[in-house]
Amino acid sequence: MGDREGKQEKKSFRNMHQQLCQELRKENVDLVVQSSLSARERHLAAVASALWRHFFSFLKGQRMSQAVPSSQLADAAAEKEYMEQLSELTRLLFKLSEVKNIFSEAQVEYLPTPEDPKRALIQFLEAVGITYRNLQKPSDKSAMVKKSLEYLGILVKSWAQIFATSEAQKLLFRIIDCLLLPHSVLLQEKELPAPLLTAIQKSLPLYLQGMCIVCGQSQNAYLNQLLGNVIEQYIRRFLPASPQHVLDLGQHPVLLALRNSATLALMPSLKKCIVQVIRKSYLESKPILLPPRLASILAFILQLFKETNMDVSEVEQLLPGVLKCLVLVSEPQVKRLATENLQCMVKTCQAGSEGEPAAQLTAVFRHFIQDYGMRYENQIYSILETVAALDQQVVIHLIPTLTQTLKDSEQKWGLGRNMTQRKAYSKLLSHLGQVGQDEMQRLENENN
Q1: Is the model's pLDDT at 386 over the cut of 90?
Q2: Is residue 31 one of the residues assigned to a domain?
Q3: Average pLDDT over residues 332-356
Q4: Residues 320-342: what's their mean pLDDT?
């Protein structure tokens, strides 16, 4: 019976695969002038091919003999633990009108039983393929492709713990490579077809949430790298093209992945990965991003602070890049957004430090002064005035570094005391209460 069932499953997958490939061949359109719909269909065919090549062997492996390595036994034990949950999920899904409509469109007379989730999945995938094949209007086919991408996203998220097992990870890698990171996506200068972006935008939060769960379960370095690559590509793809459209960020799919309340347990790890990508790929990029794109990424960071509980370690990663924007870029929109980010970061550190200045925050400012204080002293004083308005103690802790940098600068140029710079420094000190007044007095005594 086992062999007969295996052959039937193999035949079902082969039929589904052949149907999708035949549908593509029927289009008979020149490769050079293929429409964006054809591009999406090729992506769907690639994913179908991955399902054919890898998913059958995964399912067949569940009927292995008991003489298997211990690591596979552990995976099988994990598979069994979720069977009841999968059965219940299948039962609930079959109650949805959308699912019923797909089986009806495909003229499936008898629905599979919820107690056999594996068979239910096969029949549902077959039904989707048949429904797509029977559609006539390009708009209907486009909508079906979007829905199919969403189904795959749901699969990745709902089966995340299954994909964390050693046997199933190869399938997940192929889905990511074929669907989310095809060659055309990796070409930064190439714009993707708008319908394809729209389809990915709706399903991307599901993929990110599922991948994050798998990363936490499997500790697979390559998968963590893939997650970072997906985040990097689609932060950029869905950023507004100009600062005038930053209000559209509320629907950015990477932020939507964090916003879903059902993902609270995985939010810290996903947020950590997003922060690392922003720092490495956007704030530390060389050369520095041009103002329109820089303004958009600063607006993204600001939205991230508004929607999530950022911690001091995340501020520590992002603050140096924001300070660099304030020093090196004069474009008004960039300066405004960078200043708002600076204020959010200081307030975040205040909330997490119980009234004491966060050591990480002070260290970041100290390095910033040492790196830029000799050339951009006026900009630094202006930035620290903004900080002092929110938290005097942070700037007070920086007075020794600021004073030493002033003296080092005067010594470097060899022109005696720089009265213009000292006047600007005194203006900053005037915002720091008695401690600032004492330092101003010491500087005045030196002048005399």
Answers
A1: yes
A2: no
A3: 87
A4: 94
Residue 189 carries which side chain, given as an amino acid letter?
E
- Is 165 within the bounds of a domain? yes
Quote helix, strand, coil % in the chain, to nearest 5. 80, 0, 20
Same domain, residue pair 248 and 214: no
Chain-centroid distance, C-alpha 97:
32
Coil/strand/helix, residue 266: coil
Domain co-membership, 114 together with 77: yes
CA 212 to chain centre: 10
Has residue 32 been placed in a domain?
no
Tally the residues of the chain.
448
Poorest-pLDDT segment among 9-13, 189-193, 234-238, 263-267: 9-13
174 and 79 share a domain? yes
Q: Is the dihedral of CA 224, 230, 232, 238 positive or negative?
A: negative
Prior bond to 243 cis, omega within 30? Answer: no
Total structural domains within the chain = 3
Residue 86 clears pLDDT 80, i.e. is over it = no
CA angle 348–350–353, rounded 5-degree value: 110
Same-domain check for residues 88 and 127:
yes
CA dist., res. 231 & res. 238, Å (int):
11
Q: What is the pLDDT of residue 81?
A: 63
Q: How many helices (H) and strands (E) does the chain have?
A: 24, 0
Average pLDDT, the chain: 80
Residue from 56, 175, 66 nearest 122 by CA: 56
* Residue 254 lies inside a defined structural domain of this protein: yes
Shared-domain flag, residues 118 and 209: yes
Could you give the CA distance from residue 97 to residue 103 in angstroms, rounded to a whole number? Answer: 10
Instruction: Give 120-129's long-range contacts (Cβ < 8 A, gap of 24+).
Output: 120/90, 120/94, 122/9, 122/12, 122/13, 124/99, 125/16, 125/51, 126/12, 126/15, 126/16, 127/102, 127/103, 128/102, 129/16, 129/19, 129/20, 129/48
Gap between the Cα atoms of 119 and 102, Å rounded? 16
Same domain, 273 and 386: no
**pTM, to two decimals:** 0.74
Q: Do 70 and 166 touch, CB atoms closer than 8 A?
A: no
Percent of the chain exceeding pLDDT 70 equals 77
Q: What pLDDT is attached to residue 35?
A: 43
Domain that holds residue 447: 358-448
Q: Residue 77: is its pLDDT beyond 70?
A: no
Identity of residue 44: L
